[in-house]
Amino acid sequence: MTKPVGATARVIPIKAAEPALVSLYEKQKKIYPRSVHGWFARWRWVMVWLTQIVFYGLPWLPWNGRQAVLFDLSARRFYIFDLVLYPQDFIYLTGILILSAYALFFFTAVGGRLWCGYACPQTVYTEIFLWIERRIEGERGARMKLDAGPWSWQKFGRKTAKHAVWLTIGLWTGFTFVGYFTPIQTMWQQAFTLGFGPWEWFWVNFYGLATYGNAGFLREQVCKYMCPYARFQSAMFDRDTMIVSYDAARGDPRGTRGRNTDLAAANLGHCIDCELCVQVCPVGIDIRNGLQYECIACTACIDACDGVMDKMKYPRGLIRYATQNGLDRKWSSQQMMRRVFRPRVLIYGSVLIAISAAFVVSLSLRHTLKVDVVRDRTTLARLVDNGRIENLYRLQLMNATEQTQRYRVSVEGIAGAALANTTEVEVAPAQARWVTVAVQVPPESAQAAGAGAHPIRFHIASLTDARTAVSEKSTFVVPR
Prior knowledge:
- By secondary structure, the protein is of the alpha+beta class.
- It has two domains: 29-366, no CATH class; 369-478, Immunoglobulins (Immunoglobulin-like).
- Helices cover 42% and strands 18% of the residues.
- The protein has 18 helices and 16 strands.
- Strands 8, 9, 10, 12 and 14 form a five-stranded antiparallel sheet that branches.
- A hairpin with a 2-residue loop joins strand 1 and strand 2 (66-67).
């Protein structure tokens, strides 16, 4: 197109966009999650009940005259049902941590943040605290109206009641937590006189207030900003991981409509844009915007959306567990599930099974007797009657059973070596005992062996259980 002769060019000024001021310290808007009912919500409450029955009930369970699970740090004994563990059994704690890590990798690769959505203490206690808040202050709209309104005696009473219940649960949680390290029956008796020790006071209040603050106030902030799992979860996800997903191909274009609206004529998808999926989300995100690191996979949006689909007489599953490849390629649920057993998952699963088997076998073959041999450093060697050479040793015998045990001690390694004093020792249940033993060697054997340090072995065998026997090495010094 050519410009007409004599026409003058017209310049249209372009107004520069005003710079937007974004505060780095903007006040976080409070999230008011709406209650939701459905299949996944019931499973979440099953996990709440299961985890809390175990946590609150286990310290009160009697076992062999004590509580079933007790980590007695002062006595350096760890009781787990019939197991009695010593600090020397620290390797089993390492095994548990490794198992937990691989289980996290495995389940995350298969189904995303299953731990966060169903079993994480932050999720569980937030669910409990939200339930209490709804019972006292009402549903989402009532809570928003209460917070926005002026202070009144009614508002003061409801807030006070809610925080009193929250604080009670928090302190009881702290009390139970400390009860795993200090006998809870003893703590219960001390509670009536406030006779806790300084460490018990500190940890009951610290853990209780942490529960109160995290579940009552911080809530989603813990998951979004404090929990490192939200940051590195993407390293364990791939396009075949089952995650909570919105089916945009089916749901868009979004829009309100009546139940009998012709979707093709109105150019609408199945999403009615009711935003219930946003209102029930405990972290306040819109799942329709795709996978976001804030999503804790609580599946509340699935239950809410399925309820709306039922009312609209549309098929369920607009928001569902699906894989990115499955949504892009329009796979069926069976096709997506077949991709679960991909190489990455098989490797995680194989390693998890191997470590679990090794852990169980090692635990089942663990000796109930542990022995430490310490040489007496004050006297390395000395001559005694008949020219015999004597070395002194201190043996620590640790009885990892809850019955009194008798042990026989013997020594070998140099011809004629023998114990000059006690050869039988009795050790009380779940106790450790230090025993001083003297090993003597005849002069002719010492001369044949020559001066210096020579290897010997102590054998300690149980007189009450023929299967229990331990052998520990040491050295015998022959002087020049």
